[in-house]
Write a structure and sequence with these properties.
The chain contains 20 helices and 2 strands. It has 424 residues and is mostly helical. The chain folds into 2 domains: 275 residues, no CATH class; 121 residues, no CATH class. The longest helix has 36 residues.
């Protein structure tokens, strides 16, 4: 409980840090004397502040009701109807915005760029699901996430995936959140929002490639349940960390487990852990695994250094995603393009009054930020890999079938398979 309080204080520290910040546009609209007109955008117009706070209240209400239905009522049907509401409201009505998943980038940019401010509503959307997960598990994933809702409703005949495949795919979200933080911290791009596979479906508009990707994920989700949530979702990494500390997490059985094994294969996400096989968990096996655990623990710093060095080699390539770096390299290689009136990026640069030397200097600074950032990103990925390898040698004692706190989406499907009555 003390650890929960410390984490909660840390989260509210971020809240106080940004609570007085107001939202503003990062880059001014280009102004040209050539009659240029700002094109229409498919991004929804900003809502009034009162309506944004109403969205926050709806989010709190949905997560609170989901927690009640999971912990107290134990109702899968209630979670299902709440999922439908979320899909209609946060998905199609609110067009997938504001989104806690994408807010990772806003919070990151506000930390690293003093000139960028975020609204209190965006910060609340980022923090509230984490706070709920800290105490009650992934209530946001259960029924409050529109991306999860649209995938959850199409699960028809899920198949089980081998453990080694799940663990391998589980590394991808760490790469994704690392890249998203790196790109946001350097002011390069918001890649989570740009490559959101379902926002085009919610808005009934968007690039055909992304709409096609969203449809493909939904078709895949008929059999491999919630593919985006399990393989890509960067916010799921944070929710999984918080959920590990939850005290009142969803349980399969309301009282004592009778080991009927009816729930064994009930989870479409393979998030149920079986009771420990005492034949495997012998004293000799425990000692052997402990030695391996210590050895791999000592190798974690090596993984961090190797990861940092390996990923840092890509800093030149990754930095080209930044518009200033890309533009400087383009104009250095092809100076004749300065006369290209069709290239809006070049014309915006010329209208800004900056010299070529200034552009190159700014690009050099950004590339230096990428050099540092890729070292940190690689070190983080090395740390994650080292911890994943260490976890292979942990033999936990379990007497019942229990949800894995990090991976469980709290959807409640497993509860319906348990024949034990609350009064058993």
């Amino acid at each position: 409980m003390k650890r929960q309080q410390q984490l909660l204080i840390l989260l509210f520290g971020f809240l106080l840090m940004f609570s007085m910040a107001g939202a503003q546009q990062r880059f001014p609209k280009p102004e040209f004397e050539s009659g240029y007109m700002q094109p229409d955008t498919t991004t929804p117009e900003p809502r009034a502040a009162a309506m944004e706070f109403f969205d926050v209240l709806v989010l709190i209400g949905v997560m609170s009701l989901a927690t009640y239905l999971i912990i107290r009522k134990r109702s899968r049907r209630g979670i299902l109807w709440l999922t439908v509401f979320t899909l209609l409201y946060f998905g199609f009505y609110r067009n997938g915005c504001i989104c806690p998943i994408g807010s990772i980038q806003n919070v990151t940019m506000a930390i690293f760029d003093p000139g960028y401010k975020i609204s209190i509503t965006i910060l609340l959307f980022f923090l509230l699901p984490l706070i709920f997960a800290l105490f009650y598990g992934r209530a946001y994933c259960a029924a409050a996430c529109p991306l999860g809702a649209i995938q959850d409703l199409v699960v028809i005949k899920p198949v089980s995936v081998p453990s080694w495949v799940r663990k391998t795919l589980g590394f991808i979200p760490h790469v994704y959140i690392g890249l998203a933080v790196l790109f946001a911290a350097t002011g390069t791009d918001f890649i989570i929002c740009r490559y959101d596979p379902f926002v085009g479906i919610f808005r009934m508009d968007g690039p055909y490639l992304m709409i096609g990707l969203g449809i493909a994920l939904l078709l895949l989700g008929l059999f491999f349940a919630r593919p985006y949530c399990r393989v890509f979702c960067p916010y799921g990494v944070l929710l999984g960390w918080m959920s590990r500390f939850s005290r009142k997490h969803i349980t399969i059985t309301p009282s004592k487990c009778i080991n009927c094994k009816l729930c064994k294969d009930s989870c479409p996400f393979d998030a149920i852990e079986a009771p420990t096989d005492e034949k495997v968990r012998t004293e000799q096996a425990v000692r052997k695994n402990m030695r391996s655990y210590v050895i791999f623990g000592l190798l974690v710093p090596v993984w961090i250094v190797l990861g940092g060095f390996a990923v840092s080699q890509s800093h030149v390539l990754l930095s080209r995603a930044h518009p200033d770096v890309y533009l400087s390299e383009l104009l250095i290689a092809h100076p004749e393009l300065k006369s290209d009136t069709e290239n809006l990026d070049i014309q915006a640069f010329l209208e800004s009054g900056k010299s070529m030397d200034q552009l190159v200097e700014e690009a050099s600074v950004i590339r230096g930020e990428f050099r540092t950032g890729t070292w940190i990103l690689g070190g983080y990925l090395g740390l994650v890999l080292g911890i994943m390898l260490m976890n292979q040698f942990i033999l936990r004692k379990r007497d019942d079938y229990v949800p894995h706190k990090r991976d469980c989406f709290s959807c409640g499907r497993c509860m319906d398979y348990c024949p034990v009555d609350k009064t058993f």
